[in-house]
Amino acid sequence: MTSQSSSPEVSEGLAEQRLLVRRARAEMVRRHRARQADTAEPPIRVMARLVDDLERECAERRFDPVATRLEIVNRTIGDVNVRRITECEGEEGGPGDYRMLGDELGIALPGEDINGYTASGKGYVWLREQMMDAERQLLASGYDPRIYDIQGVGNPVLRGLLAEDMRPWGMTVSAENVALGLGATDCIDKILRGLAHFARLRSRTPGAVLFAAPGFNMPELQAVAYGFRLHRVRTRAEDGFKLTEELLARHLDDNPDVEVVYLTVTNNPTTFAYTPDELSAVMAVVSRFAQRGRRVHVLADLAYIGTGRPADDEARMLSLASAADVADQMIYVNSFSKTYTLTGDRFGWAVFGDPKFSVAMRSSWMSSVSCLPGEWQLRFMAYHALFRRNPQIIEMIRGLYRLRRTRLRAQLQRFDEEHRVFERVFVDDDATIYNWSRLRAGEDSFSVLEKTGIAGIPGSTFGYSDDYIRFSVGILPVVPD
Questions:
Q1: Strands (E), 115-160
Q2: Is residue 317 part of a domain?
Q3: Contact status, residue 436 vs residue 426, Cβ threshold 8 Å
Q4: What's the CA gap between 109 and 111, in Å, rounded?
Q5: 261 backbone dihedrals φ, ψ, rounded to 5°
Q6: Strand (E) positions, 42-173?
Q7: Mean pLDDT on 49-56
Q8: Which residue ranges does the record assign to the Aminotransferase class I/classII large domain (predicted)?
Q9: Please, which residues have CB within 8 angstroms of residue 241's CB and are 6 or more apart in sequence?
Q10: pLDDT of residue 445
Q11: Could you tell me where the beta strands, DSSP code E, fall in 342-463?
C-alpha cells in the first residue's frame, strides 16, 4: 500500500504516522490472540471486532486518518459500497468510470459527490417514478400492495417476471413456483423452517442437511436451529473445493437421513464455480437415488450467478436444470445482493421445481413475515425493470469485480514477496467478490493482519481449516501499489 504526497515534509510525516499505526496494529493483534482461547465467538466476529477496536484506538490516539486507512484494510465482510467506489479507468463520466455505478443504480442522490464524480440523480428519480407505475400495474391486476397479503409470498406480477427469467436456463416455471423473500438468506431460512415443519407433521424429527466445506455458513446455523443434523463434507483443493460425484454418492449412501444437499453453484468463500460437467455428475447422483425411491432436495444457492462471465453462468444453469427426472426436487434461491450490489435492499426469491411443493411451503412464509412490505415489493419491481432495460449495468458491475479481484491478487502476491505469508494465492473462476488463499505453515489470520495490514476471515469460519483465509474486495477499493 502506498500513498502520494505533495511534499517531502508531508511524506515524512505520513511515514512516521504509518509506523505508529503498525505498532498499534501489532499490539492489538497480540491482545486479541491472547483472548481467543477464552472466547466462544465465531472467528469472523473475532476478526471484525479486532479491526473495529484497532480503528477506534487509532482514532483515540489521533493518528493521521490517511495513515490509518493505508495500514488497516478491513476485508473480512462486506459487499461493494457504491458510495465508496474510487476506480476510474477512463475519462470522467465515460466507460471505465465505476464511480457512476451509484448513479446508474439509482442509489446516489441528485448532486451527491461520489469521490469526485457528481451524480445526476436521474436513476434515483427514475426508480421512484417506476415504483408508481408498478403500483398502478398491480392495482390493475387486482393486487393491492398496501393491504394484507394472506399468502405472504408476494405479488403474482413480480413472481411471474422472475419465473420468466428462469426460462432461458431451460426451466418451465410460473408465478406459482416462485416465492419472494427479504434476501436469499431469508428464503433459505423459510425453506428449512418449512421442511422441518413437514417432518414433524409426519411425527419424526428433521433429518440431515449436507453441506460441502468450505462453504457459506449461515444456512448451517439455520439448519441446526430448526432441528436438522448438520452433515459437513470436506472437499479437496485438487477438486476445486467442490462436491464430486464419488464424494456425494458415498456420503448419501453412508447417511440415509440426509434430506437436503446445499449446493453453492459458485462458491463463497473459494470463488470456484462448478463446470457444466461437474453439475451434471452431481445431478446424476441425485437422480440415481431418486430411482431407488429416495427423495433428496437440492437447495441450489445462485447468489453469485451473474457475477461471472454470462456464457459460463448460462452453461452452468442449463446443466443444473437438465436433470428433468428430479426437477421436482430442485429449490433455487437467488437475490440481487451480489449481482447488483444491492445488499441493503434485500431483494431475494426462491423458485421451487414442484409448484405443489411451492404452495405447501407458503405456510412457512406466513409464519415468519406474514406479509411482505408493499413498498419493498414496488422497489423490487422497479429494479427488475431497470436491469431488463439496462443490461449494461451488470456488465459494469462485473467489470468492477474483475478489476478489484485482479488488483487484490497482485497485491497479495507483492505482500507475499515481502512477508512470505501465502503458500498459494488462488486464481478465481472470474466470479464472486472474494479471494481464497492458502497460508504458509505457522501463519494465520492474526499474523497476516499484523504483517500486511489486511484483515481476512479464517477458513474455520467456513467449516475448513485456518490454513486458508478469505478476503473480500467489497466495501473498500483495492488501491494498486
A1: 117-118
A2: yes
A3: yes
A4: 6
A5: -110, 115
A6: 73-74, 113-114, 117-118
A7: 92
A8: 155-473
A9: 212, 214, 235, 267, 270, 272, 436
A10: 95
A11: 348-352, 422-425, 434-439, 454-455, 457-458
Chain-centroid distance, C-alpha 224: 21
pLDDT at 3 over 50: no
Q: Is the pLDDT of residue 66 over 50?
A: yes
Query: Taking every pair of C-alpha atoms in the chain, what is the biggest distance, in angstroms?
Result: 76
Confidence of residue 44 (pLDDT cuts 50, 70, 90): confident
Residues 306 and 196 in one domain: yes
What is the distance between the alpha carbons of residues 117 and 475, in angstroms, rounded to a whole number? 18
In a domain, 479, yes or no: no
| Contact indicator for 390, 104 with CB cutoff of 8 Å | yes
**Average pLDDT for the chain:** 92
Contacts of 344 (CB under 8 A, 6+ apart): none
User: Which residue carries 442437511 as its cell?
Assistant: 209
Residues 6+ positions from 227 with CB-CB distance below 8 Å: 196, 199, 205, 206
Give the residue-averaged pLDDT of 280-291.
96
The enclosing domain of 223 has a CATH number of 3.40.640.10
Q: Are residues 273 and 237 in the same domain?
A: yes
- Percentage of the chain lying above the pLDDT 90 cut: 83
Domain boundary among 331, 364, 389: 389
Percent of the chain with pLDDT over 70: 97
Q: Residue 42's pLDDT is what?
A: 79
133 has a pLDDT exceeding 80? yes
Q: Decide: 310 and 304 in contact? Cβ < 8 Å.
A: no
CATH of the domain at 415: 3.90.1150.10
* d(C-alpha 155, C-alpha 374), whole Å: 9
Range with the poorest average pLDDT among 1-15, 188-202, 207-221, 330-344 = 1-15
Average pLDDT over residues 101-128: 96
383 and 417 housed in the same domain: no
| Range(s) of the domain holding residue 134 | 128-389
For the chain, the C-alpha Rg in angstroms (whole number) is: 24
On whether residue 123 sits in a domain, the answer given is no
Residues contacting residue 211 through CB under 8 Å, at least 6 positions apart: 219, 220, 223, 230, 231, 232, 233, 262, 463
Strand partners, 234: 213
* Domain match, 375 and 401 both: no
Task: Tell me, yes or no, whether 288 and 370 share the same domain.
Answer: yes
Cell numbers at residue 416, please?
507475499
- Same domain for 229 and 345, yes or no, is yes
